[in-house]
Amino acid sequence: MSKKSFLKVGLVQQSCNENRSENIEKSIKGIQALAAQGAELVVLQELHTGIYFCQAQDVNKFDLAEPIPGPSTDLFSKVAKENKVVLVTSLFEKRAPGIYHNTAVVFEKDGSMAGKYRKMHIPDDPAYYENFYFTQGDLGFKPIKTSIGKLGVLVCWDQWYPEAARLMAMAGADVLIYPTAIGYEYGDTAAEKQRQLDAWIISQRGHSVANGLPLISVNRTGFESDFSGITKGIEFWGHSFVSGPQGEFLAQAPANEEANLLVDIDLKRSEDVRRIWPFFRDRRIDAYQELTKRFLDE
Q1: Do residues 188 and 200 touch, judged by C-beta distance below 8 A?
Q2: Alpha carbons 215 and 213: distance in angstroms, whole number
Q3: Between β-strands 86-96 and 41-44, what pairing exists: parallel, antiparallel or unpaired?
């Protein structure tokens, strides 16, 4: 693996529906368009082959899962090879009866599987009932080695946890990557919606700053109804973005539109920034033992 100084990255922000073929075709067209513009790395959003089925609990939705390797990995392997890109996908993995994961799979430019990451933090909130479907990941926070660098791939809910980003950075990640599915519940006020969006962006830009790394966050867009009829559905807020090692915006997609973003990332800036902001040098690792506890009771 050669260390690159500059990386051309593509992000595919799309809406999804019940038609799996349409969703996949949309993703592939985005990959092709970005590869044609020179993208070396393309990142897709969380669970991009279908609807965000975690809005409600339905045992029949487990039928959407597939093994890895399986049909989707076979397909996206070919797409990565044909377009000569490193590709980050996000799939519903059937590991064994009763054991399912939310899994990111990374493909090398030759179509080989570079590695995978199973989502570690699993939410259980209204309209985000992921704990019903997904088993907690067990592969740890280990960057995936590729021809373009070490990718610190995490997934959605992981983005709220500084520990996850820190461990990826400590293991040598060159960039942090978050395939995501997050949006507004229709009952929220306009002010609350803005607070949530701001918090989502601030938290991830904070990971860039604290770790001196560029960060790629790819969210879905569009409205998806709740198939159970219990809630009013989710309006996914888009705003996919890339931030630099000081948290600066390098690119940002709109809220309510599908978009293919092409972004140039200067990987060398991480070294430059870490020299002037040496957070890793000054960490008091001798005083952090209690971080492994759930809470510090009196």
Answers
A1: no
A2: 6
A3: parallel
- φ/ψ of residue 109, rounded to 5: -60, -25
Give the CATH number of the domain where residue 125 resides: 3.60.110.10
Backbone phi and psi for residue 91, each to the nearest 5 degrees, phi listed first: -130, 160
pLDDT(32) > 60: yes
3 pLDDT higher than 80 = no
User: How many domains does the structure of the chain reveal?
Assistant: 1
Residue 297 domain-assigned (yes or no) = no
Among the listed residues 119, 130, 224, 235, the single catalytic one is: 119
**Contact assessment for residue 161 and residue 136, using Cβ atoms and an 8 Å cutoff:** no
Query: Does the annotation mark 293 as catalytic?
Result: no
- The Cα–Cα gap between 218 and 179 comes to 5
What CA–CA distance (Å, rounded) separates 271 from 216? 18
In the set 8, 26, 46, 109, the catalytic residue is: 46
Assessment of whether the complete model's pTM goes beyond 0.90: yes
Strands in 183-185's sheet, in edge-to-edge order, are: 183-185, 234-237, 221-224
Tokens 């997904």 sit at which residue? Answer: 134
Task: Give the residue numbers spanning the domain of 144.
Answer: 6-284
Active site residue 16: no
Pull the structure tokens for residue 287.
Answer: 């005083």
Average pLDDT over all residues of the chain: 96
Tell me which of 156, 185, 224, 235 is the catalytic residue. 156
Mean pLDDT of 6-16: 97
Q: Is residue 255 part of a domain?
A: yes
| 23, 126, 193, 199 from 190: Cα distances, Å | 29, 18, 5, 14
